[in-house]
Amino acid sequence: MGTGGRSGLRPGKGTAEGVTAGKGNTDGVATTTTATAAVASCQYRCIECNQEANELYRDYNHGVLKITICVSCQKSCQKPVDKYIEYDPVIILINAILCKAQAYRHILFNTKINMHGKLCIFCLLCEAYLRWWQLQDSNQNTDPDDFIRYAKEWDFYRMFAIASLEQTAFFIGIFTFLWVVRPMTAEKKPNFVLLLKALLLSSYGKLLLIPAVIWEHDYTPLCLRLIKVFVLTSNFQAIRVTLNINRKLSFLAILSGLLLESTMVYFFQRIEWDIGSDCAVYKPQDF
């Protein structure tokens, strides 16, 4: 989930060279330069106080680097803007697993990660495989007929569609709640695009579903519930860090998403029971 070191940083350090490039030009160019500087000032975030920063480090000659200290005019914490730029990716990942807010700010604001869609698809495939595996385990049919094999294959596609719709409902519930309480969340309009990426990244815990299936034992249901709790905790931290809101609103947002997701699960259960689908033996709330 996390990438550390300078290789994972977003393009450009946000230094002052681009700001001073227009010195001596006309007023129009100076105005453009000022606007560029304003945009550059929003490029990074301090992982300690969440204030905006111009740069993460300054590169001197001969590869000498100096980490920038947070000196925001609003609320300066006088700490390094991002200490994780010197950390190994494994250390950053461990801190993210521990749900540290600093690690989440580093990953979400100070790195360039474009794997949200791929990670989302892979997590949905893991969840669909788990549901399909439980469905096949409950239907012990060894008939080698091609029709049976095709039916099992379409069952997997159906599980993938159901998992996708349930996750969509979960996200819609979160966004709806945050939209309603938007005046309470932040002084400026929240970035829901960044929040969506943060939620997708923070759902990486679903990758643990595959080892839970491979290492099958008597405590698999307990493991699935623990994985669910871990994913929700990561989503909770992602909401709190991205929108810079308190824990109460983040918790209520998660509850809203779970409520809408549970409604979707109940709807699928009723539909499957009405049409007599063999999928009724699977209970999505087990995960």
UniProtKB/TrEMBL annotation:
It is found in: Endoplasmic reticulum membrane. GO terms for biological process: bile acid metabolic process; cholesterol transport; intracellular sterol transport; regulation of cholesterol metabolic process; regulation of intracellular cholesterol transport; regulation of plasma membrane sterol distribution; sterol metabolic process. Residues 1-21 are annotated as: Disordered. One of its GO terms (cellular component) is endoplasmic reticulum membrane. Keywords: Endoplasmic reticulum, Lipid metabolism, Lipid transport, Membrane, Transmembrane, Transmembrane helix, Transport. InterPro entries: Arv1. Pfam families: Arv1. Belongs to the ARV1 family. Mediator of sterol homeostasis involved in sterol uptake, trafficking and distribution into membranes. This is Protein ARV. The lineage of its organism: Eukaryota, Metazoa, Chordata, Craniata, Vertebrata. The gene is ARV1.
